[in-house]
Design goal:
This protein is mainly β and 122 residues long. It is built from no helices and 11 strands. Strand 7 and strand 8 form a beta hairpin. The chain is globular and about 40 Å long.
């Protein structure tokens, strides 16, 4: 599966952005999807994941209540709506696909897309 993320940009603190990730290849609905991020000088960290059918979602504590993950299987797309953005959300955001359905925030993907940069100014 190939993943193409988009939607990053520069936004002021308190603002919103929506990231999109389009998948091509094998049946999209057979993959769990997720978002990770990597800030400058830091390791990549989990942000959110969603199950095959979209009924289960998990979030990192740092984004819970501000970010919402969703998917449209008809469009082979997963989204990350990011509200009330903070400067510490600044990072390159990566989408991932995995054959295992998530059961916790410890989910990890098998396939990765290129990142999209999100910069939040104070």
């Amino acid at each position: 599966v190939q993943l193409q993320a988009s939607g990053g940009g520069l936004v002021q603190a308190g603002g919103s952005l929506r990231l999109s990730c389009v998948a091509s290849g094998r049946a999209f609905s057979s993959y769990a999807m997720g978002w990770f991020r990597q800030a400058p000088g830091k390791e990549r960290e989990f942000v959110s994941t969603i199950s095959w059918g979209g009924s289960r979602t998990y979030y990192a504590d740092s984004v819970k209540g501000r970010f919402t993950i969703s998917r449209d299987n008809a469009k082979n797309t997963v989204y990350l709506q990011m509200n009330r953005l903070r400067p510490e959300d600044t990072a390159v955001y990566y989408c991932a696909a995995g054959s295992r359905n998530p059961t916790s925030v410890n989910w990890r993907g098998d396939y990765w897309g290129q990142g999209t940069l999100v910069t939040v100014s104070s």
